[in-house]
Amino acid sequence: MSFFEIDGSEKSGSGTILRYSATLSSITKKSLHLFNIRQKREKKGLRPQHLKALEACTEITKGSLKNAYVGSDEIFYTPGNKIFSGNYSFDIGTAGSTTMLASAIIPVLLFADKPSTIELTGGLFQDFAPAAHHLEHIVLPLLKRMNIDISLEILKPGYVPTGGGKIKLKINPIKKNILPICLEKQGSLKNIKGISLSSNLKEGEVSKRMAISFQKELENMNLNIKSDIELIYDEKADQKGASLTCWIETDTGCIIGMDVAGKIGRTSENIGKTVAKRLVQDFNLGATLDRYTADQLILYAAIAKGTSKYIIPKMTEHIESNLWLIQKFLNAKYDLQDNLLTIHGTN
C-alpha cells in the first residue's frame, strides 16, 4: 500500500498539520503516513487531543490507524471507503481543546449521507485554541454563507486544567456544493457584540468586570460605540474559569472576532483590555476576517465550488500551514497579494 507522506515538522510544526492531514486524508481517501509530528512544539509528538482527532476520523470512516499513542511522532492512517453519519461521542480525557477537535471532524462529516451529531468533552476555553463562543458566533455563521449548516450547543463549560466541558454539534451533510466566501471589502463598523462568561465566580462579578474593561478600552482607543455584551454566570463547570469573546460586525457582512480565556494571575480587567486591543488591531489592519478565523476557513474554501477571497490581518504560521496542506492534498491554487487571500476551490 502506498502512503501519502506528510512531514509534521514543516511550516508551523504543530498539531494543526496533524489534525487537518487526518481530515484531508479522510475526505480524499488517501492513506496517510505522518512523521516528525509536532516537532516544533515543546511537548513533541501526539498529545491526547491530537490522538482523539485521529481516532475520531478512523471511527467515522471505519478506517485503520497504526502507531497512534500519546507521544508518538509517526502514524499510519488509512481511511475507509465511506464516511458514516451517526451520533458520535469523543472524550479527550484532558482539558485539550474541543474546538480544535471539532475542526478536524466537521469537514469529514459534511460528506456523510445523513445528519450527524457529535458530543465532545474536554476544554472549551483556553489559550492557543479558539473559544467555543468564537466557533459558535463567528466561524459557524460564516460557514452558513458557504452552504454549510452546523449548530453548536455548549452543554457545560470546561477550562484548564480540569477540562470536563461539553459541546454538542449537529452537522448536516452538503446537499449540493460548498459555496465560496467573498469578503473583499471591510466596510464600516456596524456593531460590536460579545459574550462574557465566568464559572463559579459570581461573587467577584467577573463577567461584568471583563465587559466593563472591554468597553473602557474601546473608549481609550477613541472607538465611541457601545458594545452589546451578554453576561453569563455559570455554575455547572467543574472549576472556576472565565472567557471573553467579542466580535465586530460591519455593513458588508464581515465578522471579526477575538477571545481570551481566564488564567490564574490574569485579571478580569486585563482580559477585557486584551480582547479589545487585539480585536481593534485586526480591524484597523483592514481585514475582513480575524487572524484565527482566516486560517480555519482555508480548508472549506479549498473544497468549495468557486473562488473565495478575503483579507487577512497578517500572515500567521497556521494560515501558512493550512495553505501548504491544501496544496499538498488537493493541489488547490491560491494567491496572496497585499493580504488579499484568493483560494480557488477544487470542486
UniProtKB/TrEMBL annotation:
Residue span(s) of domain RNA 3'-terminal phosphate cyclase insert: 185-282
GO biological process annotation, one example: RNA processing
Keywords associated with the record: Ligase, Nucleotide-binding
GO molecular function: nucleotide binding; RNA-3'-phosphate cyclase activity
UniProt domain RNA 3'-terminal phosphate cyclase: residue ranges: 12-335
Regions that span the bilayer: none
Keyword field contains Transmembrane: no
Entry-linked PANTHER family: RNA 3' TERMINAL PHOSPHATE CYCLASE, RNA 3'-TERMINAL PHOSPHATE CYCLASE
Annotated family: Belongs to the RNA 3'-terminal cyclase family. Type 1 subfamily.
Protein name stated in the entry: RNA 3'-terminal phosphate cyclase domain-containing protein
